[in-house]
Design a protein that fits this description.
Layout (H helix, E strand, L loop, with lengths): L1 H15 L8 H6 L26 E8 L2 E10 L9 E5 L10 H9 L3 E5 L17 H14 L5 E6 L1 H12 L4 E7 L7 H4 L5 H9 L3 H11 L7 H13 L5 H17 L13 E6 L13 H4 L5 H11 L4 E5 L6 H4 L1 H12 L1
Parallel strand pairs: 3-4, 3-5, 5-6, 6-7, 7-8
Antiparallel strand pairs: 1-2, 2-4
Helix pairs in contact: 1-10, 4-5, 7-10, 8-9
Length: 349
C-alpha cells in the first residue's frame, strides 16, 4: 500500500509539473546527491518510442483543445493486386495498433489497404495531461487522419472499446463508412446504469497500482479462461512494460480518463440509429463487463453475458448480421484466428 501511495504522489508531481525547490548553496554542500532512477531494461516509455511495431509507424499531427497532438498510425499497402478498398482498424482499451498484426497480415494479402491508428492516449500517440476524452473527439481525429490520406470511404472494424469508437464513428460519418464490423465490442450494455459512479481519481489510483503480474492475471482470467501462451504474452507486453517506466503516471492518468469516457458515454442506446451495413463477430465465452466488481452482486451476475448481448445488438441495429464463435473469449483474432478470419472476410468481401 505504501508503494502505491508513493507512486500516486510522484504521479501528481509529474502531472502538475511540480518540482522540488532547488536547494540553497549551503544545503547542496551537506545533502547527498540524488540517486539516479533505476529503469528496467524492458521498460517502455509513455509514447512507446522504444517499442517496435509490426509495420513502420507514421504520425498525423493536429491541434485540439489548445494543444498540439500526434496520432500514430500504421498505413499498410496491399500485397500484390490492390482491390481498391481500405479497412480502418480501431483497437481496444488494453491494446494498440500493434495488436492488429495478424489481422493486417491477411487483409493486405486479400488486397486491402489497412489503416490502424493508436488513438490519443494509447500506444505511440500523445498522452496529454489536459484533454477531455470523448468518443466523438476520437472519431473526429480519426476522420481527419483518413481525410489527410485521401481516403473517402472505408470498412471500419472495431474491437472491444474500439467497437464503441467504431459505432460512434459510423454514427457521426455514415457517408464515409462502407461497412461496420464490431468484434466483441464492449459497451453493449450501459455500464453507467449498472454500476455506481467512480471518480477519475479512483480510476487513477487503480491504474497507478498496475504491474505486469496484475495485467497478466487479469487477462488470463478474463480473456482466455485461465489459459496463457506466448502469443497472449506478446499481445500484453506493451501494456505490461509501460507500468515499469518512471513516467508511467502519464499513461495511468490517460487511462483513468478513458475509463471515465467509457462509463459516462454509452453508445448502446444509439445502436438503432446505425445506418450502415453492420456485422458482429462475438466470441460467446466472453464475460467482459467493465465495472462489474463495483456493481451490486445481483446486478453483477447479469453483466457481460455475450451469449445474449450479441443477439440484442443484432436485433437493435437495422439489418445487422451476427456471427457467433462458440467457446471463444474476448479476443477471437488471437484465440480463434482461423474462425475469426473467415468471419471477418465473410462480412467485408
Amino acid at each position: 500500500m505504501a508503494s502505491v501511495v508513493r507512486r500516486y504522489l510522484i504521479g501528481v508531481m509529474l502531472l502538475t509539473g511540480c518540482a522540488a525547490q532547488q536547494p540553497t548553496p549551503a544545503a547542496q554542500k551537506t545533502t547527498p546527491a540524488a540517486q539516479p532512477v533505476q529503469v528496467a531494461t524492458d521498460a517502455v516509455d509513455p509514447e512507446a518510442t522504444n517499442y517496435t511495431y509490426p509495420h513502420p509507424v507514421k504520425f498525423f499531427e493536429f491541434d485540439s483543445q489548445l494543444q498540439h497532438l500526434r496520432l500514430a498510425y500504421l498505413d499498410v499497402a496491399a500485397v500484390g493486386q490492390p482491390n481498391g478498398r481500405t479497412v480502418l482498424l480501431l483497437h481496444g482499451k488494453n491494446f494498440s495498433a500493434s495488436a492488429w498484426a495478424s489481422t493486417i497480415a491477411f487483409l493486405i494479402e486479400r488486397g486491402y489497404r489497412v489503416i490502424a491508428p493508436d488513438q490519443v492516449g494509447f500506444g505511440k500517440s500523445t498522452k496529454p495531461v489536459t484533454y477531455q476524452f470523448s468518443f466523438s473527439a476520437l472519431a473526429s481525429h480519426t476522420r481527419a487522419l483518413l481525410a489527410s490520406l485521401g481516403i473517402t470511404r472505408s470498412v471500419v472494424v472495431g474491437h472491444s472499446m474500439g467497437g464503441m469508437l467504431a459505432s460512434r464513428y459510423a454514427l457521426s460519418y455514415p457517408e464515409h463508412v462502407e461497412r461496420l464490423v464490431l468484434v466483441n465490442p464492449i459497451g453493449l450494455e450501459d455500464y453507467s446504469a449498472l454500476t455506481p459512479y467512480r471518480s477519475v481519481d479512483d480510476w487513477y489510483k487503480d491504474e497507478l497500482a498496475q504491474n505486469p503480474d496484475k495485467i497478466r492475471e487479469y487477462q488470463k482470467k478474463a480473456y482466455y479462461a485461465g489459459n496463457w501462451s506466448d502469443d497472449y504474452e506478446a499481445l500484453a507486453k506493451l501494456q505490461m512494460n509501460m507500468t515499469k517506466h518512471p513516467d508511467y503516471a502519464r499513461v495511468a492518468w490517460a487511462s483513468a480518463r478513458l475509463y471515465d469516457m467509457i462509463f459516462t458515454q454509452p453508445v448502446v442506446h444509439d445502436l438503432p440509429r446505425l445506418a450502415v451495413p453492420t456485422g458482429l463477430i462475438i466470441g460467446t465465452r466472453d464475460k467482459t463487463a467493465l465495472g462489474k466488481p463495483f456493481a451490486k452482486p445481483e446486478i453483477a451476475a447479469t453483466m457481460g453475458d455475450y451469449t445474449q448481448l450479441g443477439k440484442r445488438a443484432r436485433d437493435a441495429i437495422p439489418g445487422a448480421k451476427l456471427i457467433e464463435l462458440e467457446g471463444v473469449g474476448h479476443i477471437p483474432q488471437v484465440e480463434a484466428a482461423d474462425a475469426y478470419r473467415d468471419a471477418l472476410l465473410g462480412l467485408i468481401d
